Amino acid sequence: MSNCSCNSTNALVPTIGVVTDIRVDTPDVKTFRVTGVQGGLCFDYVPGQCAMLSIPGVGEAMFSITSSPTNREYMEFSIKKCGILTDWLHEIEPGQQVAIRGPYGNGFPVDTVLKGRDLLFIAGGIGLAPLRSVINYCIDNRKDYGTIDIVYGARSAEDLVHIDELKTYWNSLENVSVHLTIDNPQEGWDGHVGFVPAYVQELGFDVDRTVLVCGPPIMIKFTLASLGELGFEKSQVYTTMELKMKCGIGTCGRCNIGSKYVCKDGPVFRCDELESLPAEY
Amino acid sequence: MEHRVYSLPKKRMGELFGLISSSRQLFLPMEKGGQFQFSRVDEHTDLEGVSLDRLLTAGSAKELFFPQTQQIAAFRRRGKEIELTSAETLTSAFVAFGVRACDARSLEVLDRAFLGTPRDTMYEEKRSKGTVVTLACNEPEETCFCSVFSIDAASPKGDVETWIAGDTLYWRPGSEKGAELTQELDALLDPCSEEEPEGLIQLKQQIRSIIGKLPLGRLSLEQFRPEALQELFDDPAWQKLSEPCIGCGTCTFVCPTCQCFDIRDFDTGEGVQRFRCWDSCMYSDFTTMAHGNPRTSQVERFRQRFMHKLVYYPANHDGLYSCAGCGRCVSKCPNSMNMVKVMKTLGGAQHV
Lengths: 281, 352
Prior knowledge:
The complex is a heterodimer. By secondary structure, chain A is α/β, with parallel strands linked by helices. Chain A has a seven-stranded mixed β-sheet, with helices on both faces. Chain A contains six helices and 15 strands. Chain B is α+β, with helices and mostly antiparallel strands. Chain B is built from twelve helices and twelve strands. In chain B, a hairpin with a 2-residue loop joins strand 4 and strand 5. Chain B is globular, with a radius of gyration of 22 Å.
């Protein structure tokens, strides 16, 4: 429930939250911890849902919530510096208030389809952000899910986000395996080198898993091809989309793929459903 | 519930407007500042500019319910703090008189878009406060094609439906809201003894006869089914159809069903005001993101607009088309490209 003080019923009116902590993940990604002004979550959500963050006068944009809703203390957003608002956010310090509204979108089917399944998470770059919410949700509800494999790649070792969590937390858990890769060899990196789609094929997973993929469009495209070659059906694979959004409630008119609105009907799509839509994304 | 018909001598319409505007805001189609548009009138307004003969206002009645700009919120930033200083303003009860059948249908289209879950409370507020008094189109024009969408301009659906037949205004409530307004106008409106007066029957016949002869009245919608979505999306005709489009967005601004909007902040120096304002899918930056744009050229943007109206919207709303055939885009496009040409080309010109 909202801990913020605004009583507006207008879905476009934000509430005020506060950034309590900022972590530097990579040269261009920071993770921002946000709470209500009185602490706690600004609103409830499910993994895969998004929120609109804004600094009034600077801009407002949609970001996936990277923390798991099992965390009742704060929300986290991993944000890449790539525009007016995100440039600004990268300059702020803890204590800065932000305007926030949400949650938006459908989220991953964590309490239905994913339950009891062995899960394979595949992420590229900042694409780990929305999947991290699901991963931590599954870990916090461990008995409800099977084995967890995480394949994650980035351009370089410095571009891997949430690296401490990947290496020291997730990797230390029973039945959780982390497989890291970077695009090109570099000094000090003794892990796998190569693109994510090829690494997935190399690792060769059993086809009884449910797969969650997020990353740059080109990575998703080739990963789906790799999964196909391994024998996975598109109906086993979920991904999460990103298109320009202003409202978050399916009315401003810009995030549609065919008749589906990413902000409302997505951002999570099963890949066979996505394939049935016009390829305009 | 079938409501009875009332009448009023046309020459007493000024009194009617006076009585309405004594208790509610009244908007009438009138010539103002060189534009024919819905404008607010009160007891001081010179009704000279009001025209109930001219068919269509430049902008549609949509503007009364979904204004071009609307404030969402206001903020004040002090150091690291952000204060939300105000929310939306409230609307007074109002009456829109002289809304044509096409514009009335467009409100139905907007209702489905804005009153889903979650509801758009700004639109809902205006919709709940507004009473729509429609006016039958005595002389539909060549650019009209509302009948294609099963809209009857001879009997326009609204909270109140009106007709001007010769020297008489006929008035029939069409909803509870309309019945309420009718009651308030009790002193002026005269209940007719017949269910449908002879003058009204004749006028409707006349109108329907004109509509039957309109050149665009036989456009086919057969092709525009949700099942044909992919096929229509892939149609090579979009290339040619979109060539004249300069992306000016005029069609979207005059369109009664276009609903796209942007959210913008304006720094007044004393604080930040956040507005929503109309936007257009015809503009290149409409879908531009930090990492690219899914609609890179005018072909994609043009296709989006028409696919939305004829296929995507109906797919989401039980087959209701997001076009009311008002013809504004037909008369206003600087390059003579419009809905009709798209429908003819994609729908198979043999139907026309």
